Amino acid sequence: MPTPFTPTRRQLLTMIGQVAGTAAMYQAMTSLGFAAESGYTGDLSLQGPRQGRRVLILGAGIAGMAAAYEMRLAGYEVKILEYQNRHGGRCLTMRGGDRYTEMGGHEIACDFQDGNFFNPGPWRLPVHHRAVLDYCRKFGVAMQPFVMKNNKAYVHSQHAFDGKPQRIGHVEKDMRGHVSELLGKSLQQGDLDGQVTLEDREKLLEGLKEWGVLDSQYRYRVSDDLGGVRGYDVRPGGGLMADTKPSEPIDLSPLLQSGLWDQVFNFNSYSFDPPMFEPVGGMDQITDAFAREVADVIQLNARVTRIAQTDNGVIVTYADGARGGEMREESADWCICTIPLSVLGQLDVDCSDAMRRAIGAVPYASAFKVALEFRRRFWEQDDWIMGGVTYTDLPLVQIAYPSYGFLSEGPAVLQAAYDTATAGRTFTYSWSTMTPQERIDAALAFGRQIHPQYDAEFMSGASWVWHRVDWSLGCYGEWTDGLRDAHYETLCKIDNRLVLAGEHCSHIPAWLEGSLLSALDAIQRLDQRENA
Amino acid sequence: MPTPFTPTRRQLLTMIGQVAGTAAMYQAMTSLGFAAESGYTGDLSLQGPRQGRRVLILGAGIAGMAAAYEMRLAGYEVKILEYQNRHGGRCLTMRGGDRYTEMGGHEIACDFQDGNFFNPGPWRLPVHHRAVLDYCRKFGVAMQPFVMKNNKAYVHSQHAFDGKPQRIGHVEKDMRGHVSELLGKSLQQGDLDGQVTLEDREKLLEGLKEWGVLDSQYRYRVSDDLGGVRGYDVRPGGGLMADTKPSEPIDLSPLLQSGLWDQVFNFNSYSFDPPMFEPVGGMDQITDAFAREVADVIQLNARVTRIAQTDNGVIVTYADGARGGEMREESADWCICTIPLSVLGQLDVDCSDAMRRAIGAVPYASAFKVALEFRRRFWEQDDWIMGGVTYTDLPLVQIAYPSYGFLSEGPAVLQAAYDTATAGRTFTYSWSTMTPQERIDAALAFGRQIHPQYDAEFMSGASWVWHRVDWSLGCYGEWTDGLRDAHYETLCKIDNRLVLAGEHCSHIPAWLEGSLLSALDAIQRLDQRENA
Fold this sequence. Notes:
Number of helices of chain A: 18
Oligomer: homodimer
Largest sheet of chain A: 5 strands, parallel
Largest interface: A-B, 158 and 158 residues
Radius of gyration of chain A: 27 Å
Strand order of the largest sheet of chain A: 14-2-1-18-27
Shape of chain A: globular
Number of domains of chain A: 3
Structural class of chain A: alpha/beta
């Protein structure tokens, strides 16, 4: 880099004066300015109901609880009917002692040690999921960084490098180096002179040299400088320890043929941009915080069977678990229904034909997770992997290392297998057919190819298969562009006295933020209708 | 990506059997295997002293305290003489109520609110600094991720984009996109056919398309896919919120001319690879943990003036602050001296001429920091910057956002200016001439160009200038290749009964790890000499 101007003390103080007095300072990016990026402004401005208006909400997930919280604040009388004996919906956390009987009759038993847990559903928050983060701030949910990208974690293919996992940072930096070298060659050969000005060409060459850590001939080769970027075979030490030895890059051809570069692309997503976050102590801390606000209006164990509409309101029929399944009715002026479409499609719902078609049109994505508890954090102690995600072409697809309890001595839990049926991968269908024990066996058998310590350190496991959950029948609404064009607007529109919410009514499927924003949007429109 | 093979349940279970039985599993990366990367093995294997042997250690920084801890464990009698009235050396944390009078007579007053702090010296730990992390594990120092790279933080130039800061993720992804497009063109034109095989060319084109988010004609253009990687002008919402609008990339030429790509290269360093870590509650938690182990052998307020050597031992003369500065002597069989060379060079030391020249040869780098406390976390609330570092060509060089207390409501502290006199930048010399108040004024005046909220939210500030610290006279030993060749080995070698340690005796200057490894290496050599 060029040497910047170095002011003397007097010059520096003069600069300060000039800066302080300047009128040309760039326009401040205020909260208002940035809010434009988001449908969420932090200000709902509900006008509130006419006298004594009642809203019935179906489902005590984040959408239903947020709707209840905001509508009650605005003056509506609210009630939530929840099918399960718990709040939180798909945002849940399993801890030692938890038991869950899945469809098919198998019981999932979680026997993790105190303080250990796993999140079968959402497990991390992008920093731009402002609505969720803003409620966490308001409700005092403590947040910690979730390590998504760890350059020390692995990418792995059974068919490359003799099955030996490669560090993410190595693969990424080597590809960057090779790409820089090749483009440098092209630029020097003048191949791109028609596309790039001479001035840009020089800047670009200078930049590629630093970005790709190229030598003076623009080659990507082992060097001391490369050690400072890619790491070392023998790292710099203290005193008279052995001489530093920079690590050797992987050649372009084997790297390309390995397919491992593709795995690194997993980190490209805007949603995975650093930093990500997680609540301290498990994802259910978020929904628990909402529940603290609205627990008094949630009726658990209420299995809705029918949503009837009149001109002026709704009548919802449900089996009341607290009274031995006795069928009961609740009436209200409005109904906000957050029941997953996979379940809702099987209920008796009064709504337009268009909405009924929309409800039936969206398939639900399959997804599974297996979590394994080990006696010690061997991934930290042996492999220097503190947090982050390893990707592999093995059917376990990814291993996520915990972002909490770093360096502690006791047992810890890996999210040892996870995938959804997207991006052309359908491993999840196979895993969904397995018994809970078979899933643990599979996660161990595959995972030990990456972490041979599995055998010696394994304690217990738990798993989750979203297609075996009777209250969701899948993980999330799997929209295509065609389905969106045909049904999305209908699905979200207020249908007489009924409006739907939940991640399926959003452009952010499977994320808490989508669910929450869908609820905030629905209640704003409902409130406008109420006051129209 | 190609669709992977999807096994049936039966096939999957068969695969597991095969995998479990395979003998060709890659060789386990055990702790032993990885230790080869590091001079630190976690196993010192000191043989211990002959009867009643005494070691005098000068300086209660991490090097001195680690030496004391390990040598006492091995059976040596140890004592530490420390100049200051505190342990920890350059690893220190300032909190509300702390006062420090720097050389020149100005007092730095830190008036931060409870729970807020700033680290004038080391402030983050790379994950491969295994020795420090291993002691933290052993001593139970809780560790949390330190957000180094935040794609939402800024790069900024006064002379680019009308002085408007740009998101790091935008600049990085745009450069990646443009580089991919250009290399894609070259490859398609056949410019590199001599360098890349046809098969690699296809793989590379496929990879560049995904890495750079290129369209079907290998162009880097705004698209829905690009939104999913680069972000949005209007982000995906819930319900019937406004339509998603992907953000527009910056063109190649203005981006190159802005120099902002260069700033992103700051994150290239292996030391900054994600994830980095920090102890919960301030960096002094690390040295406090060492001090808990060795406090009983530390004598504070002991100003060493002379290190004399005999054939069989050392005699150290010091002014004893506990007795009004009375001159006293301590004898020992060995002396481990961790006093910075900048100070040591001014003391009366019996050692070889070669070592004396080495001590005098290494200049000490200048470095400064300014920390500012603000009423609220506007960087999080307004700018969505949660942790990380912003770089700028303003003389403040960088702003670091706290990696603790995320989303909390109260006052918080930015490391609002920081630089060392390296990489051709010498801003730190100017800052070092300013009074503490002038530094705060300067950090505010420059910083408000990036965060206009400074004016409304400022509460108080503190600063640190390493060349105004009488016990270090600079920040760290600034080695060049030439100086290393001439003096490093001499400096580290045992000189009769004296051996030096500290970051200046390492290949990792300015980092705790260098200091710690230098001590571990020195005591191993000393122990071998003792037992020779």
